[in-house]
Structures are given as structure tokens and as C-alpha cells.
Design goal:
Radius of gyration: 23 Å
CATH class of one domain: Alpha Beta
Distance between the termini: 23 Å
CATH architecture of one domain: 2-Layer Sandwich
Oligomer: single chain
Strand content: 25-35%
Number of strands: 18
Structural class: alpha+beta
Strand order of the largest sheet: 3-2-1-6-11
Order of helices and strands: EEEEEHEEHEEEHEHHEEEHHEEHEHEHHH
Shape: globular
């Protein structure tokens, strides 16, 4: 662990790989020191499909980040996403042997461990187990059961599942790029930490992160994550459609989308035309902006409708589960013109574009506060939080208030220290990180 407590987030995306380093300033805000970005060649829909290319892209991004911050990078917090992620609801209970004693962390730990024994499909592994609410002896809607009396402890869980092989491949890339794995986080959770305010999480909000290869969804209500999903479409399929529909090359299609693209066809007049240089000695192509936005519109509607199905699956239409704060769009795809209006039109929910400036220091660079970097900023914050937790474990008398939802700390350090009477809540992501480290060490 670095003495000066720098945290590095590594966002391995389908279109770009971003490494970002940051520290906490004296006001408790995140100060970004440096960032590096490289084109991602070995990733398809959030899943690594070419290890060598991914390692090169990671090294390039890390080098850039080192140059811009002047600090050597040795370990990273990495995000997991991709089309293999799914989530399910599950409820479980334990019967306590002695109901004369109050419920403590160990009971909750036992209950969570029990959920971990759920039988998954072959090759799948549980990544996150997030308790929603507890019941003690049938009394429901309990947020924090510690300290209560009761014989039967019951809880509803939000369980996030992913493919072991995909997670191991990411670990392999990081290790081969000469880096240590500090921790693993689910990308929708990282983005949510970076762009959502605690009031929004309380009121009920759906975060839609439109990336290059996938669109991630995270739903919060009463400050707790309620639902996560990954839709295997993103900005790349829009580019692909423009390429096919206009018979042009991908680079031109991407530029067209960024410069002239709009999700709302009615905006463009029939006579607005863009001329695109032809390939080597061929005539230039003329494309009407109306056609362009029709192509974009068709695909964006499909993406949003799929995400809206997931929001309905969570139960948004029930009065009790209504998402009062509506939708927050982030990720590179959220910069498409008129997307906010289209999303409001399709879902009937209030929508805003989320910039990751919620927890950043006031003087942050404009480029970093772009929705493109929401996940990277979230991963940096996540690493800083892990550093804070470690400091607390090292100096238990100094307690600081932690206001983020993710419960992540480093397990290896608990093993070295003498056990404390209070059992620290372990996150299963640490468990996963440790198992991944063991697996990689033994696979050499």
C-alpha cells in the first residue's frame, strides 16, 4: 500500500481502457492526480477476448497516468462488467441457538455465508451478496438487526452473479501487465458512487451507464442497491448500424455519430446533408442528417426499451417501489444529443445526465468530469474508501464516518493482525479478490 495513499482505478471497457489515480484532499473530496487512456482492442461487450492486446492497452493507459501524475503505479482497483453479469433476488434465514443473546455481526456473516452456498449454473460465481432488509422473528422492514433479540433472522438479498472465467481473465491481464490487484468492484456500483447523490439513492433512482459494448443498470431505493443488470448493447452497435446503413467505414461512422448524431429524428430538416470523403479516389458520399438520426433513433430506442424492461422487472410500477428521482444517464453514450428527451418520452420518468463531479474536488479538470469517466472516478473513490477502512483497522481509536454504500475492505490485513473482538464486515468482493490472487499465484 502506498504511504501517500494514492488509489488507482482501472476501467477496462470495450472502447477504451482508463487508468486514473487520485487521493483524498483535506475536505474529504477526491482529487484526481493523473489519468491515462488507451484504445481497447481486446475487449468485446465488456468481456476480455484477446489477452495480449488487453495487456498492451492496460500498460499504455497506466504509463500515461504515471506520466501525468508523476507517481509510480503498482496496484489497481478494477471494475467488472460485461454481458455475463446477472442478478437475482433471494431470501434466506438462520435459526439462532440462543435467542437470549442479541444478534451480532457474526449472525449476519453466517446468514450471508449461507447465501453463498446457493447452487449456480456451471462456471458462474457469486460476486456480490447485498442484504436488502431483515426480518427478526417475523417482524419485517428492519434495516439493521444488530443489537436486537430474536431466534430467527431472515433477510432478502440481492445476489449478483458472473462468470468465473471472465473474472479470472481480467485478473490474468492485470497480473501480466505487472500490477497488483487491490480490489474488484461491480462497474455499475462504481459509476453510481461517482454520479448519484445520497438523496437520489434514498428517493429511488435508476442509473443507466451507456458504454461502448454494454449498458449497465443499477437501481437504488432507500439508499440500498435493489437491482443490477447488464444489457449487451452500447454505443458500438449504433456506430455499426451507421456504418452499415450509410456504407461508410467505422471511423467515419463514429465521427458522424459524435458530431452530427441525434436520437430524435424530428430535429433535422430534410435538406441538411453531410458530405463524407470517399475511399481512395472514389466520389464523396452525401448523407442526410435526417437519415442518420433515424438510424441512431431506431437503435437507441431498442437499448432504452431493454433497460426499461429491467426497470419494470425491479417493480417500478408498484407504488411502494416507485423511483421518485427517475433516471440518471452516464457513460460515453449519454452524450448523444436529445437522448434525455427520448428517454423521458419512452419511460415517462424524469431524466438527467450524470457527471462524476458529485465527490470530486472543485478544481478538477473539465475532461475528467465528463460522463465518459464516471466508472473510472467511481473506481478511484472505491480504492480510497478501502484505504480509509484499512487506516481504521490499523488505528481503531480514530473513526471516520463512511458514507458510501459499498462495504469493501482488505482481507489480507485482517489475517496478519490479532483478531479484534468486533468482527469486521467482510465484503465478498474481497473474498473474490483473494481467491483470484490465490488462483493466479498457483497458476504460474
Amino acid at each position: 500500500m502506498n504511504e501517500n495513499k494514492i488509489s488507482v482505478g482501472l476501467d477496462i471497457g470495450t472502447t477504451k481502457i482508463v487508468a486514473m489515480s487520485g487521493v483524498k484532499n483535506e475536505y474529504g473530496k477526491t482529487q484526481i492526480l493523473g489519468q491515462g487512456k488507451s484504445i481497447s482492442l481486446g475487449v468485446h461487450r465488456g468481456v476480455v477476448n484477446n489477452i495480449t492486446q488487453t495487456i498492451q492497452s492496460i500498460q499504455q493507459a497506466i504509463q500515461e497516468a504515471e506520466q501525468s501524475s508523476g507517481e509510480k503505479i503498482t496496484s489497481v482497483t478494477v471494475g467488472i462488467a460485461g454481458q455475463h453479469i446477472r442478478s437475482l433476488q433471494h431470501s434466506d434465514y438462520i435459526t439462532r441457538s440462543n435467542s437470549e443473546l442479541v444478534i451480532d455481526e457474526a449472525d449476519i456473516e453466517r446468514l450471508i455465508n449461507q447465501v453463498h452456498k446457493l447452487v449456480m449454473l456451471p462456471g458462474e460465481e457469486i460476486i456480490h451478496v447485498l442484504p436488502q432488509e431483515f426480518k427478526v422473528d417475523g417482524q419485517g422492514e428492519i434495516k439493521e438487526p444488530v443489537g436486537m433479540y430474536g431466534g430467527r433472522l431472515e433477510a432478502n438479498f440481492h445476489v449478483v452473479v458472473g462468470q468465473v472465467s471472465s473474472i479470472r481473465n481480467i485478473g490474468r491481464c492485470i497480473k501480466s501487465a505487472g500490477l497488483d490487484l487491490e480490489g474488484i468492484t461491480l462497474e455499475p456500483l462504481a459509476s453510481a458512487n461517482a454520479v448519484l447523490s445520497s438523496e437520489e439513492k434514498e428517493a429511488g433512482v435508476a442509473l443507466i451507464d451507456i458504454g461502448g459494448g454494454t449498458t449497465d443498470l443499477a437501481i437504488f431505493r432507500d439508499g440500498i442497491i435493489r437491482h443490477t443488470a447488464v444489457v449487451p448493447f452500447g454505443g458500438n452497435v449504433i456506430t455499426e448500424d451507421i456504418k452499415e446503413g450509410c456504407s461508410i467505414i467505422e471511423k467515419q461512422a463514429e465521427l458522424l455519430k459524435i458530431k452530427f448524431g441525434s436520437a430524435w429524428p424530428g430535429e433535422n430538416k430534410d435538406n441538411e446533408i453531410v458530405s463524407i470523403p470517399g475511399l481512395r479516389g472514389r466520389d464523396p458520399k452525401e448523407i442526410t442528417l435526417k437519415n442518420l438520426s433515424k438510424i441512431i433513433h431506431a437503435r437507441v430506442v431498442e437499448i432504452i426499451e431493454q433497460v426499461y424492461v429491467e426497470i419494470k422487472n425491479y417493480g417500478h410500477e408498484e407504488q411502494k417501489k416507485k423511483l421518485i428521482a427517475g433516471i440518471v444517464l452516464t457513460g460515453g453514450g449519454s452524450q448523444l444529443k436529445h437522448l434525455k428527451q427520448l428517454v423521458e418520452y419512452i419511460t415517462g420518468m424524469d431524466t438527467r445526465v450524470g457527471y462524476p463531479n458529485e465527490h470530486l474536488a472543485g478544481d478538477s479538470d473539465k475532461e475528467i468530469t465528463s460522463p465518459l469517466f464516471a466508472t473510472s472516478v467511481g473506481l478511484v473513490m472505491d480504492g480510497l474508501q478501502r484505504i480509509d477502512k484499512q487506516n481504521q483497522e490499523d488505528n481503531p481509536e480514530q473513526t471516520s464516518i463512511d458514507n458510501t454504500d459499498l462495504d469493501i475492505e482488505n482481507k489480507e490485513d485482517e489475517i496478519k493482525k490479532p483478531p479484534k473482538p468486533k468482527i469486521p464486515k467482510k465484503s465478498f468482493l474481497d473474498d473474490l479478490t483473494d481467491r483470484l490472487k490465490d488462483f493466479l499465484d498457483n497458476a504460474e
